[in-house]
Design a protein that fits this description.
The protein has 24 helices and 24 strands. The chain is an alpha/beta fold. Helix 2 (about 15-20) runs antiparallel to helix 3, helix 5 runs antiparallel to helix 11 and helix 6 crosses helix 11 (about 270-295).
Length: about 800
C-alpha cells in the first residue's frame, strides 16, 4: 500500500517519471512509464532490475540495441483490424518501419547467444524470445511503397497507366500555357518575368486587375492585397479538367491498392501487435537504463525480507538540479536492521533532515518500481509491502482539516495499517500543536510503531522522542551533522547519537540581539543549553573509539592475511623440498649407474690390455678424472638449497695434481664440471673456444673439466637447456594463474602482458584463460581482441557471462 495519493509528488518521483518518459522513443513505451506502479513481488522486482541492468550494457556503444523507429505503429495496426479498412501511405510506411525494427531486434538477440544457445543477457532474452518476424509482409509493403512513403508506379498496371496519362496531359497543359504566356507578354497583359502559379491544383497566371478582362479564362483567386488576379486561361481549362479527373482516378486506385494490402496483412495483425508490444517493453527498459546511467543507478543486492543497508544513496532529482548548478551532492549512508528498525533523526533546521527522508522514500520506491536505485552496488535492499509518508502541510478547507488534524489522521491510518513490512516516513513528528502534549502524543504513536515492528525514518526536534529512542528496543537516534565553527550544516547523516537543533547558534548567526538570546538561555537554564554540548562531546568520543576499533580490526585482518600467506608459503616450500629430494634421488641413481659402468669399462680395458703398465695407468687416470667430476657436484644448485652448509673442498694431493693434465684441442669437457657436454675447438692462452651442441662460446680454461661423456649429436641443440632453466620453467608452471588483470594499463603495456600470458598458457597446456580488462570506453578490450585474432593458438574468445563480469572480461579458448 502506498499512502497518500500524492506520494510521488511529495517524494519527487513525479519528476523521475517525467524524465524517463522523455527518454522513450515510442508512444507505447511512454504509456508503460505512466502505468508503471509499485510492486511488492520479489521475483517481479528482481526480474525488472536485472533487465534494466543488462540493458545498461547495450543501451549505448558498439553493441547497442537497434533503434526503435516504430512511432505509433500500434495505433495504425489496431485501426487495420476492421475488415475492409485501409490507411494512408504514410501510416503504411510506419508499419513497414516497425516490421523492419522487429527483424533487427530479433537478429540482435540471436547474435548474443553462444554455441550452446545461451544468451549473455538472459533476462532481456527471455523478453525478446517471443518476437516473431514478418518478412513476407514487409516485402509486400516494400513492393507497394518506396522509402519515402509514396506508392510506386508499378504497384499496379492501372496506376501505371493513370500516371502516364497525367504526365502526358501535364505536358500538353504546359505547352499551351507557354503559348498563352508568350502571347500575353507580347500584348502587354503579363509582365515579362511572370510565371505560372498553382491554385486548387490548377495552373493559373498572375494578372494585374486592369488586364483581367483582356485574358479569357476562369478567375480562381486573388492576392491578399488585391493587386494580383489568378486566372486559368480558357485554352487550358479542358486539359486541366482532364488532369483533375485523372488525379481522382489515381486516388481511387491508390485506395484500392492499400485496401488490398491491408487485407493481406490482416491475418498477421495480432502477432504484429504482440511483437510491437515487446519492442515497446524493450524501449521502456532502455529509457530506464539511460536514466540509471545519468543518475548513477546500479544493481544492488535484493532480499525477500525487509532490509535497508544503503551506501552513497542520492536523490536523483536533487542530483540533477545540483549538477546543473555545478554543485556536488552529499550522499547518504544509512543502515537499519531488525534490532534498529526506526531511525529518529534530529538536527538543525535546513540541515538536510527532510532531504534525507525524501531520499529514503524515492530510492526504495524506485527499486520496487523496477528502476536501478542511485546507490553503490554493495547496498542491500529488501521488499516492503507498504510505504507511508507524512511530509509537508496536508490541511484541507474542503475536509475541514487543520495542519495538525491532517497529521493525526495520517497517524491513525499508519497505526491501523502498520505491519512488520511497512516503511513509515514522517517529517517534523509531533509538530503543529502545543509542544508538550504534541511531544507526548508523538511518543505514544512511536511506541505503537515499535510494537508493530514497523520500519521507518522520522525527523523531530522533540527532546522526549530522542530520549525514548535511546531507551526503546527497535529505535535508534541519528543526527544531521553541523559545523559549529563555520556555523553551517554538513548535510551528513550520523547514526547512533541524537543531534542538536543549534537554535542558539543559529540565532546568533542570523543577528538576533544578544540580550534576547541571553534572556532565552536564562529561561531554559544552563543545563538545557549545555546538554547539546555534552551530546556533541559524547558523539565525538564515540566516533574516536569507533575509528580505533576499525583500525584494530584492519590490522588484525592484515596480520591474519600475513599468517595465512606464510603458512601457504611454508607448505609450498615443504612440497618443493620433497620434490627436490625425489629429483636428487633420481640423479643419485643415475650417477651410481654411470659410476658402475665406468668401473666396469676400466676393468675391461685393463683385462684387454693384459695389464700393460702404460694402458693401466691411462685407465686409472680416466677413472680418477670421472671421480673428480662426481666430487664437484654442488649441493646449492637449487634455489631452495642455497642456504644449506657448503661442503668443504677436498685438499688436493700431489698425486691428484699430477693426474690433471693440460687441456688440448679435441678434449671433451663440461663447464664447471656439470651442464652440457662440449668439445674444445681452439685454445688461446687461458681462453678456450668450446662447441656446446650448435652453439660456440669462449670461456676460461679453469672453468672447464674433462669428462668421459660424449656429446649427443642427434639432439645437441635440444640438450643445451640447463637444469636451472628447467627448474625455472617448472616453478613458473606451478605459479601460473589462468587469469590476468590488465585494468589500468595502457594499451601497449596490456598487449605485452597478454602476449606473455598467452605464451605461458600455450606452453603449460591451459585450455581456457580469462583476461580482465574492464568495460570503460572499450578501446582496451578491442585492442586485446585484435591481438587475439592474430594468434594461431587461440581457438575462440567471448565475453564472460553477465553474472561473472560480462563485457569486462574476455574468456579465451586455446587449442
Amino acid at each position: 500500500m502506498i499512502y497518500p495519493e500524492s506520494f510521488e509528488y511529495k517524494i519527487g518521483f513525479d519528476k523521475v517519471r517525467e524524465s524517463v518518459a522523455k527518454l522513450c522513443t515510442t508512444s507505447g513505451a511512454a504509456a508503460r512509464v505512466a502505468e508503471k506502479s509499485f510492486s511488492t513481488d520479489f521475483n517481479t522486482v528482481k526480474s525488472a532490475l536485472t533487465a534494466v541492468y543488462e540493458m545498461t550494457e547495450i543501451a549505448t556503444g558498439e553493441e547497442a540495441l537497434p533503434a526503435n523507429n516504430c512511432g505509433d505503429a500500434s495505433k495504425v495496426v489496431k485501426s487495420l483490424k476492421v475488415p475492409g479498412s485501409s490507411c494512408s501511405p504514410a501510416d503504411m510506411l510506419t508499419v513497414a518501419k516497425a516490421l523492419e525494427c522487429i527483424e533487427d531486434t530479433s537478429r540482435f538477440f540471436r547474435s548474443l547467444k553462444n554455441e550452446e544457445g545461451v544468451s549473455r543477457l538472459p533476462e532481456l532474452d527471455s523478453i525478446a524470445s517471443s518476437i516473431e518476424t514478418f518478412e513476407s509482409c514487409r516485402r509486400e509493403i516494400d513492393r507497394i511503397l518506396d522509402r519515402f512513403g509514396n506508392v510506386k508506379d508499378n504497384a499496379s498496371n492501372e496506376l501505371s497507366d493513370i500516371r502516364r496519362s497525367i504526365s502526358s496531359m501535364s505536358g500538353t497543359v504546359n505547352s499551351a500555357m507557354r503559348r498563352v504566356m508568350t502571347r500575353a507578354v507580347a500584348e502587354g497583359i503579363l509582365e515579362a518575368d511572370a510565371s505560372p502559379a498553382m491554385r486548387d491544383g490548377r495552373l493559373v497566371l498572375p494578372v494585374a486587375p486592369m488586364n483581367k478582362r483582356r485574358l479569357p479564362g476562369i478567375v480562381h483567386d486573388e492576392s491578399a492585397s488585391g493587386k494580383t488576379i489568378y486566372i486559368e486561361p480558357a485554352e487550358v481549362v479542358e486539359a486541366n479538367n482532364r488532369i483533375r479527373e485523372l488525379q481522382l482516378e489515381e486516388k481511387r486506385e491508390i485506395l484500392r491498392i492499400l485496401t488490398e494490402l491491408s487485407n493481406k496483412l490482416r491475418p498477421f495483425l495480432p502477432q504484429i501487435l504482440k511483437s510491437i508490444d515487446i519492442l515497446d517493453h524493450l524501449d521502456f527498459i532502455k529509457a530506464k537504463a539511460l536514466y540509471a546511467r545519468d543518475s548513477g543507478g546500479t544493481l544492488p543486492h535484493l532480499s525477500k525480507k525487509t532490509e535497508l543497508e544503503w551506501y552513497h544513496a542520492v536523490h536523483p532529482v536533487l542530483l540533477k538540479s545540483l549538477k546543473s548548478q555545478g554543485r556536488e551532492i552529499v550522499p547518504l549512508d544509512i543502515h537499519l536492521s531488525e534490532a534498529k528498525r526506526i531511525l529518529i533523526i534530529s538536527g538543525p533546521n535546513a540541515g538536510g533532515k527532510s532531504v534525507c527522508l525524501k531520499t529514503v522514500g524515492i530510492v526504495q520506491y524506485m527499486a520496487q518500481c523496477g528502476m536501478l536505485p542511485p546507490v553503490y552496488e554493495n547496498s542491500h535492499f529488501g521488499i516492503f509491502n507498504d510505504i507511508f509518508v507524512d511530509i509537508g502541510d496536508n490541511q484541507s478547507i474542503e475536509d475541514d482539516l487543520s495542519t495538525y488534524s491532517s497529521h493525526l489522521r495520517n497517524m491513525k491510518l499508519f497505526v491501523g495499517w502498520g505491519r512488520p513490512t511497512s516503511l513509515v516516513l514522517i517529517d517534523e513528528f509531533g509538530s503543529g500543536t502545543e509542544p508538550q502534549i504534541g511531544g507526548a502524543i508523538a511518543q505514544a504513536v512511536l511506541h505503537k510503531f515499535a510494537d508493530a515492528q514497523m520500519w521507518g525514518v522520522i525527523t523531530t526536534h522533540y527532546q522526549n522522542l530522542k530520549q525514548f529512542a535511546e531507551d526503546t528496543d527497535g529505535l535508534v537516534n541519528g543526527s544531521m551533522l553541523y559545523d559549529r565553527h563555520l556555523m553551517q550544516p554538513l548535510f551528513k547523516l550520523s547514526i547512533g547519537n541524537p543531534g542538536s537543533s543549534f537554535a542558539v547558534e543559529i540565532a546568533r548567526k542570523t543577528g538576533l540581539p544578544n540580550d534576547i538570546i541571553e534572556e532565552a538561555e536564562s529561561i531554559v537554564g544552563s543545563d538545557y543549553i549545555n546538554l547539546d554540548k555534552y551530546l556533541l562531546d559524547i558523539a565525538r568520543d564515540r566516533k574516536y573509539w569507533e575509528n580505533k576499533r576499525t583500525e584494530i580490526k584492519r590490522k588484525e585482518k592484515k596480520l591474519n592475511e600475513v599468517i595465512e600467506r606464510y603458512e601457504e608459503d611454508a607448505e609450498g616450500l615443504r612440497l618443493k623440498r620433497r620434490e627436490i629430494i625425489e629429483q636428487a634421488k633420481e640423479e643419485a641413481n643415475k650417477i651410481i649407474s654411470s659410476s658402475n659402468a665406468s668401473v666396469e669399462r676400466t676393468i675391461r680395458e685393463i683385462k684387454t690390455a693384459q695389464a700393460e703398465k702404460q694402458k693401466t695407468m691411462e685407465a686409472r687416470r680416466k677413472l680418477a678424472v670421472y671421480k673428480d667430476s662426481l666430487s664437484n657436484i654442488k649441493d646449492e644448485s637449487h634455489p631452495l638449497l642455497k642456504k644449506a652448509p657448503k661442503k668443504k673442498k677436498p685438499v688436493k694431493t700431489a698425486r691428484s695434481s699430477e693426474m690433471e693434465l693440460p687441456l688440448k684441442v679435441g678434449d671433451i669437457v663440461k663447464l664447471d664440471g656439470k651442464g652440457t657436454v662440449g668439445e674444445i675447438l681452439e685454445i688461446n692462452g687461458n681462453n678456450a673456444t668450446v662447441a656446446f651442441g650448435v652453439m660456440k662460446t669462449t670461456v676460461k680454461t679453469d672453468r672447464l673439466k674433462r669428462t668421459d661423456a660424449r656429446p649427443n649429436s642427434s639432439n645437441s641443440a635440444l640438450t643445451f637447456v640447463s637444469s636451472a632453466t628447467t627448474d625455472s620453467s617448472r616453478e613458473r608452471q606451478l605459479n601460473f594463474s589462468t587469469e590476468i588483470d590488465v585494468r589500468g594499463m595502457r594499451v601497449d603495456e596490456a598487449i605485452q602482458a597478454v602476449t606473455y600470458f598467452i605464451d605461458d598458457a600455450v606452453q603449460f597446456s591451459s585450455g581456457r584463460v580469462r583476461i580482465l580488462h574492464g568495460t570503460g570506453t572499450g578501446a582496451l578490450r578491442e585492442a586485446i581482441r585484435q591481438y587475439l585474432d592474430t594468434v594461431s593458438d587461440v581457438r575462440s574468445y567471448r565475453d564472460e557471462h553477465v553474472q561473472f563480469g560480462g563485457a569486462g572480461i574476455t574468456v579465451v579458448e586455446l587449442r
